[in-house]
Amino acid sequence: MNKITILFISILLFISCKQTENNGLQFVSRDRDVPTFSADSAYYFIETQVNFSPRVPNTYGHAETREYLMAKLKDYAGDQSVFPQEFTAEGYSGDMKLTNIIAAFNTSATDRIMLCAHWDTRPRADMDTVKTADYIPGADDGGSGVGILLELARLMADNPPPVGVDIVLFDGEDYGTSGDIKKYFIGSRYWAQNPPVPGYKPRFGILLDMVGAKGAQFPKEEYSMMYAPNLVNELWGIAEDKGYGHLFLNEPGAGVLDDHYIIDQYTDIPVIDVINHSRGEDGNIVFAEHWHTHRDDMPVISKETLKAVGEVLAELIYNRI
Ligand SMILES: [Zn+2]
């Protein structure tokens, strides 16, 4: 082959690779039935977690919640399809036993997507004015994302999804003291550096974090728009069609460091973040008033918000891929 032929073939290969990559983020509306997401059920899953008290590493509540999440996911995905990824990490006072919890639906499908949230809660209420050294209930921060994913798991048990869906619940997301980034995102960092399945490459991932509060606002988070703008626009378009444009705002959000950013950095899986925040005047992040305070408890949780997020995800999973 001469040089021009080789160059031509290389360009063709490059284009086809790029197309395959992009195809994972192309969506069309298909005429499929979408099962009904129950906000009552998601709410109950959040309440159950909060009732275990703190889901702070090395506490009783953390261990109890781990067993509950494993059992619930096994109910829905089957005993053989739930996998605890256990590891040890250095905390502020000794080692911590952490666990990422993974549940796979439609395991025979090679075409897969990933849905994630963090299941640990913050050990301190550093944004509160009282009892700042005490843990937060974490109904919204932690609990809401997990609650919505458990409800989706319940739906998928009864209605097998058209693609493979992996739920990944990260541990140790919210452990670090303010500014100590190394002690945040411990579970997602471990997961990204130690993939439980070698070469695991879902089309994309969607992270849910603080997705349950009354009056939540989800602008288009900046890193999500960098890594997977088509997916963000599709999800926000679905929300608009369903009348949830007042929650999923069609406007730029801030750049939020979260589990999705870690995975986007360490792997080639594009992951976006649905997260309640707003963008301040100078582009800084503003979180809800209850963030990292004792007020992050069941009274801030809104079934309307849970329903909106759940329905948008169900539509994407069952009817757009
Ligand atoms: Zn947090």
Structure report:
The chain is an alpha/beta fold and 321 residues long. The chain has a single domain, classed as 3-Layer(aba) Sandwich (Aminopeptidase), CATH 3.40.630.10. The chain has 9 helices and 10 strands. It has helices spanning 3-23, 39-51, 60-77, 139-158, 186-193, 222-227, 229-241, 259-266, 303-319, and strands at 82-91, 94-105, 112-118, 164-170, 205-209, 218-220, 248-252, 271-275, 278-279, 285-286. A 6-stranded mixed β-sheet has the order 1-2-4-3-5-8, with helices on both faces. Strands 6-7 form a two-stranded parallel ribbon. Strands 9-10 form a two-stranded antiparallel ribbon. Helix 2 crosses helix 4. The longest helix is centred in the N-terminal third of the chain and has 21 residues, at 3-23. It is globular. Mean pLDDT is 94; it is low at 11-20. Residues 122, 141, 174, 292 line the site of zinc ion (ZN). The site of zinc ion (ZN) has 4 residues, from loops.
